[in-house]
Write a sequence for this structure.
């Protein structure tokens, strides 16, 4: 589940929440899953991966990850991302474009301290996306990490990312490909609404 705190009352956020509620009612699995596409201006390469969207605070979408992972390297080199959600239960795709930034150390620490320590042990022990000799080695590192005394202390290399979209596209699948596409784009500090052809 995504937690909403003081959600923005701007039009695209209202639409987002309505669709989220519908999707919850339709028992959408992995409702928090969001694909984040990034670009590395160093490698000149596009990349993408799913993460779990944990919070929408006001107008900020927040997920958590390793700050030294390939995605983080991409964000350092090029801070613009595209994010995609697909809720199959209601046949809705939501596309967002935004600039991404880290959440504060204080925010990360508060969140980490509340998390399951078993999950924290993994976040601490994993050098995300680096190769390792075997799966057994991962399990061993994890077991060693579980014995640490400071499992509520957020490491420097782990924390949140926050993005505030300047573009939303809500795609609604219909029969005969008569799909409905509503766009909200932030221009001169105002949301401009438009409709795209299928
Ligand atoms: C449904 C789903 C949710 C995921 N959630 C997260 C997450 O919240 N944070 C994260 O770092 N990785 C998450 N992952 C793993 C990422 O997709 C990815 O493998 C990992 O972050 C490494 O990505 P990178 O090498 O591009 O940095 C999730 C994977 C799936 C399939």
């Amino acid at each position: 589940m995504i937690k909403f705190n003081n959600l923005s009352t701007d039009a695209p956020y209202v639409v987002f929440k309505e669709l989220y509620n519908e999707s919850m009612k339709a028992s959408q699995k992995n409702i928090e899953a969001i694909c984040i596409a990034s670009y590395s201006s160093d490698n000149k390469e596009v990349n993408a991966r799913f993460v779990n969207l944990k919070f929408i605070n006001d107008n900020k979408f927040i997920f958590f990850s390793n700050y030294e992972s390939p995605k983080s390297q991409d964000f350092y080199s090029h801070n613009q991302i595209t994010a995609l959600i697909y809720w199959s239960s209601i046949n809705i795709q939501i596309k967002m474009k935004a600039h991404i930034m880290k959440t504060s150390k204080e925010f990360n620490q508060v969140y980490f301290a509340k998390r399951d320590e078993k999950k924290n042990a993994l976040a601490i022990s994993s050098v995300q996306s680096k190769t390792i000799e075997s799966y057994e080695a991962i399990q061993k590192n994890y077991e060693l990490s579980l014995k640490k005394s400071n499992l509520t202390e957020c490491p420097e290399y782990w924390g949140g990312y926050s993005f505030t979209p300047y573009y939303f596209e809500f795609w609604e699948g219909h029969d005969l490909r008569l799909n409905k596409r509503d766009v909200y784009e932030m221009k001169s500090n105002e949301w401009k609404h438009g409709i795209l052809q299928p």
Observations:
- Helices lie at 11-25, 70-77, 105-114, 117-125, 135-146.
- The chain has a mean pLDDT of 97.
